[in-house]
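To: structure desk
From: M.T.
Subject: fold request, one chain
Message: Could you run this one when you get a chance? Sequence is below, nothing fancy, just the single chain.
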Amino acid sequence: MYFTFVEQVRARLSESDVPTPVAQAYLQVLGNLNALSLLMAPHGDDDLDSPDMAQLTRLFAQHQRRRAKMEDDHPILAVLSRPTGWQGN
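Reply: Done. Structure tokens follow.
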């Protein structure tokens, strides 16, 4: 399951120099990804092959691409959305 602690990212963005419209759009994308992830959690075997799941998967992929584009345009977004204690590069 996908999850980003949106409130933590919101607090970090408020202390950054990211333009407000960009920050708001990014937070919306993160929130949508969280919501879609919850909706995509299967509740039974029938859910995995349903047309609804295919649509949710497409929406999730679109939002992931939008997030990646925003992070390419504003690399600080990727840094600000990292979980606490993140140890990567």
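Reply (cont.): The chain has a mean pLDDT of 90. Let me know if you need anything else for the meeting.
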